[in-house]
Specification:
alpha/beta; glycerate kinase, domain 1; Rossmann fold; 2 domains; six-stranded parallel sheet; 17 helices; 15 strands
Length: 458
């Protein structure tokens, strides 16, 4: 690998790491909370709350809870603080109950955790504060199926949706209408106490009703919307009968809808967005600028099928090159793609598939010069693998050819993980303790700029 190419890869990784750091959950919570002789202040909101309930769930739950416990005196805590997170981010906190549960598929541990939280909320009183610390992954980590739906049935439904090509908002629409906590359900249980949520968003556009399936905010979707999603992705006939029955009776008005905006339970509810994909994208852009790259921010989120998104990004890169680059250039984006899986598929994740597909698209389009492309999840986990994503370059296909690997065939089999591993192009970070969706970083070096890259990094 040339020195220039190695520099490009190191710079892409630095941009990604800056994006992850910008979503640091401990710092994000600390910035929002202050406690003095007047009581707790949350951003601009103040209250003389004598009883405070701390509940955290998501991939950043332990860090967020730790920050809140460092600020709020223990004598003001009405109950034992609870954090529910995934196995990779699990660690004990003194004087708190930390529970690990399943992700991306829910499990019995998550159900037990959800019941523990629901029981605690039953003891909330008027004048109490429920401070919820919410981060990505909360939907799977805290399952509490609606009456008549088994956990096994909800897992099956979730699994079908995850492999269908449905986006996260669509998946959460269905989840909310099969749950007792999602879609405003937690706010309903917390009433009549005051509720404030500090939210680390993993949803593009930061739709609060979609983040962790919106447990603390009104839900604009309906049972009919959930059924439409299942039909759109040909999942309706495959879901368990109990889920189908619940959704059908809900659409007929025989089940209570999720709470809507005018519901009185939201009168004392508020929220603060403490981190998002957009904030992390900006941090990555700033690092690229510091390293003297001409930066281009992709205005639209990278969504849809991973392979189609890869082709679009490669075409954008081709356009930049054809119009002449004055210096080393960075094309930076954020998003969350999908992968529609067949019954017979290999191992990978949306970011790994996006990276591998970009390498193929770049080759087919004749992308000249040296380049490298990184796509990774800010949580450090892509699909059911240990990788965060992939980082490919203009020599990736050559490395795979030397290893006698048919890249196109492997991509068609959705077998990106072992393929990228063979090219030494997997990005493995370990669990990061946060989650604000995915970042994509493309660095381009035209042939006439190779001799100046080192100068730009002095």
């Amino acid at each position: 690998m040339s020195q220039h190419l190695e520099t490009l890869r190191q710079d892409a990784l630095a941009c990604f790491q800056a994006g992850v750091a910008a979503a640091d959950p401990y710092a994000a919570v600390k910035r929002q909370l202050q406690f003095d002789q007047h009581g707790l202040q949350i951003g601009e909101r103040c209250g003389d709350w004598q009883r405070i309930h701390l509940i955290a769930f998501g991939k950043a739950a332990t860090a967020m809870l730790s920050a809140a416990m460092d600020i709020i005196p223990s004598q003001y805590l009405a109950s034992t603080p609870i954090a529910v997170t995934n196995d990779e981010n699990f660690h004990q906190l003194e004087n708190a109950l930390v529970i690990a549960s399943g992700h991306p598929l829910p499990d019995q541990r998550g159900l037990a955790a959800a019941k523990t939280i629901a029981e605690q909320l039953k003891h909330c009183q008027s004048g109490d504060l429920v401070l919820c610390l919410i981060s990505g992954g909360g939907s799977a980590l805290l399952p509490y199926p609606a009456a008549g739906i088994s956990l096994a049935a909800k897992i099956t439904t979730t699994e079908l949706l995850l492999s269908s090509g449905a986006n996260i908002n669509q998946i959460n629409c269905v989840r909310k209408h099969c749950s007792q906590l999602k879609g405003g359900g937690l706010a309903r249980l917390a009433a009549p106490a005051d509720l404030h949520a500090l939210i680390l968003s993993d949803v593009l556009g930061d739709d609060l009703s979609a983040i962790a399936s919106g447990p603390c905010v009104a839900d604009p979707s309906s049972f009919a919307d959930a059924i439409a999603v299942l039909n759109q992705y040909a999942v309706w006939e495959k879901i368990p009968k109990c889920v189908k029955h619940h959704l059908q009776t809900g659409a007929e008005g025989l089940q209570a809808e999720t709470p809507k905006a005018k519901d009185v339970i939201f009168a004392n509810c508020s929220h603060t967005l403490v981190g998002s994909n957009a904030i992390s994208v900006d941090a990555a852009v700033n690092i690229a600028k510091q390293k003297h790259y001409q930066t281009h921010l992709v205005s639209q989120p990278v969504i849809g099928e991973a392979r189609l998104a890869a082709e679009t990004l490669a075409k954008q890169a081709k356009h930049l090159l054809e119009n002449g680059l004055g210096q080393a250039t960075a094309l930076i984006a954020g998003g969350e793609t999908t992968v529609s899986l067949s019954s017979d598929h290999g191992q990978g994740g949306r970011n790994q598939e996006l990276a591998l597909a970009f390498a193929l698209s770049a080759d087919q389009l004749g992308l000249n010069g040296e380049w490298c492309f990184l796509s990774a999840g800010t949580d450090g986990r892509d699909g059911r693998t240990d990788a965060a994503g992939g980082i490919v370059d203009n020599q990736t296909l050559n490395r795979l050819k030397l290893a006698n690997i048919d890249t196109k065939h492997q991509l068609n089999q959705h077998n990106s993980n072992p393929t990228l591993q063979a090219a030494n192009d997997l990005l493995v970070t370990g669990a990061t303790g946060t989650n604000v969706a995915d970042l994509q970083i493309l660095l381009l070096l035209p042939n006439n700029q190779k001799n100046h890259l080192g100068e730009q990094h002095v």
